Amino acid sequence: MPQMSRQDPLIEHHTVDYVPLAERHGKARDLFTLWFSTNIAPLPIVTGAMVAQVFHLNLLWGLLAIALGHLLGGVVIALASAQGPRMGIPQMVQSRGQFGRYGALLIVFFAALIYIGFFISNIVLAGKSIVGIVPSVPVPASILIGALSATAIGVIGYRFIHTLNRIGTWVMGSALLAGFVYIFAHDLPADFLTRGGFNAAGWLATVSLGIIWQISFSPYTSDYSRYLPADIGITRPFIATYLGATLGTILSFAFGLVAALATPEGTEAMVAVKQATGALGPILMVLFLLNIISHNALNLYGAVLSIITSIQTFASRWTPSIKVRVVLSGVILAGCCLVALGASADFIAQFIGLILALLLVLVPWASINLIDFYLIKRGVYDIASIFQADGGVYGRFNLHAIVAYFIGIIVQLPFANTSLYVGPWANLVEGADLSWLVGLAVTCPLYYCLATRKQTQKVRAAKLGYSD
């Protein structure tokens, strides 16, 4: 086994700073394994079971809606991921180049809140999973075990996260395929193919859910591609991320759907998985537990980078060390464990509802991010300005981006269908939250027009100055 050089430390020493070209490493296929393995987990499987249990689609129409939703939404996560090698900085830091140094703080705050919310939800889920496998372990101890394990992975950082997911791709992928084989090799219910049917509301709701699922990852995708060589280009990271994210989620959603249809109607999703997979069930539960812990490390990692980004906004000359990341991880761990230990029985459902509501703020951000990177600046940013106290060429606030962002949120509200708020037009298609579609349709052209208008004004001013 080759020894690690000083440039390849076990514990990541970069935080939100630029990754120098000499320290770049890895291949595009690492993005495939990361996003494929990450999405083979209980939450997407439970969500897939909803296609039959809640939206009442049959197998054929359910699979078509699942595939279409993730294939469409996967474009967003793949485009965001492909920015990493070119920029060499975390996604939230890059937002300064679009919103201005201080203008990006609101996005960073929402991102941190989402990461912490998912981290707490997943350590509760991990604790319950441990108790389900080893009932003799007390719930508080189970929660602490899950939290400490995820924190250890998150502290070690980028390289270890990618290594675990390379292994996880083979292990989790093989286990899921074995589960499919087991289900179809045994007797299926008589209504396996006919339970449910087609209904426009359920089909659109499933497609919409797949798109939203993929968009929800976009605030931190380039965090895991920023170490790749800068000359790797756009196409290879895009394809690797797209295939990994879409195949992983489609397989997981489909597995949940198949397990739900292979068991009596009304069976709880994970119970259905256990029943449908027979002897494989306990093995799958252990693997799912390990995947929950591994995936939760991404939430902690993203939360730490977001909080450091916020602090560093007001201290431009500060370059956080490994110790800062470790200490901050410990603080988040302690706070999240206190919340998790006092969580109510329906805590996960409540938190997931909050997080899905917060997606209202992610859609306009993703729109501005992609339009700015690919159509306005075409991947060319002044990295030095991003770290300057006054924002350099990007300033402290970019009003055009901020205006487009808030308008993008406001136009979604009438169509929002969340646990926190239901808009007056939320049920245009019953059961489907189409607010994201309105957000994209308004924010993308609005920001493009505002940004290009600003560029045109600068060009005209330069010409007038030259003629004078």
Automatic annotation (TrEMBL):
It is found in: Membrane. Its main location: membrane. It is a multi-pass membrane protein. One of its GO terms (molecular function) is transmembrane transporter activity. It comes from the Bacteria. GO terms for cellular component: plasma membrane. The keyword Transmembrane applies. Coiled coil: none annotated. Belongs to the purine-cytosine permease (2.A.39) family. This is Cytosine permease.
